[in-house]
Amino acid sequence: MVSDLVLTDIRAGYRVVTLNAFLEKRATRFVGRAKA
What we know:
Layout: H1 4-35
């Protein structure tokens, strides 16, 4: 059985990864628009 602490850790890590991917997409789009 996985402890709640580990589950919370995994969830937090997943949220950080998705947030980073989201920001990366926005940054890429912003830079692309700035260059155009």
